[in-house]
């Protein structure tokens, strides 16, 4: 099961005719360690699928449906030129956002105005991991104070304008400039894991522990211990058990649908 992940960037330089062209460049990602304790591999971005559907959203609403419900206006434009520039540690992922016309999207117009004014200048990439990365060494090793995970590669799914960036090198114009998701992420985790944890407990967890618990829940593992969820998730016997349970649930659901369709059972 692939986990969708988030990282961050900033607005690029503002051309003089940006208001007329409605085009603004963004530095989406660099080799700099972000606030999630990860480093993205700029030399191994997979962009082919994104180029087929280069949507740009606001607050990742194309991926995370807003509380108010699905709204097409949260797709605020499209990327005209997603590409990696530079090599080695100077490599960075860039994008050129073409905002929707005002006549079809008032939200895009408002966000464009805020970008031009400077109150919104951060970008955030949503991606899926490619291959297997590695933990750093020494103080960057897993479990150490400065633990850092180095990705092997990433597939870009979409990117969005957000209020707060995680990557300090993703910049605005000539200036150096986390998705504001702390509350949203905690609320999602609380909802997904039921009433097993308090807000303070989740706030004190490492990101990898939260992901292990969420992955465990998706597999039907009911535990409060991230290490146990991780172990059971890798255990072939436990996985066989889970797969059998899923098959049974699917069979019961299929049987119920057939009974409803044939009039033997009511909704």
Protein described:
There is one protein chain. The chain is an alpha+beta fold and 267 residues long. The chain has two domains: 175 residues, no CATH class; 51 residues, no CATH class. The chain has eight helices and twelve strands. The strands form two sheets. A seven-stranded mixed beta barrel has the order 1-2-8-6-5-12-9. It is globular and about 65 Å long.
Architecture blueprint of SSEs:
Elements: E1 4-11, H1 18-21, E2 23-30, E3 38-39, E4 45-46, H2 48-52, E5 55-58, E6 75-79, E7 83-85, E8 92-99, H3 106-117, E9 122-130, E10 134-135, E11 149-150, E12 153-162, H4 182-192, H5 199-203, H6 207-218, H7 226-234, H8 236-261
Parallel strand pairs: 3-11, 4-12, 5-12
Antiparallel strand pairs: 1-2, 1-9, 2-8, 5-6, 6-8, 7-8, 9-12, 10-11
Helix pairs in contact: 6-7
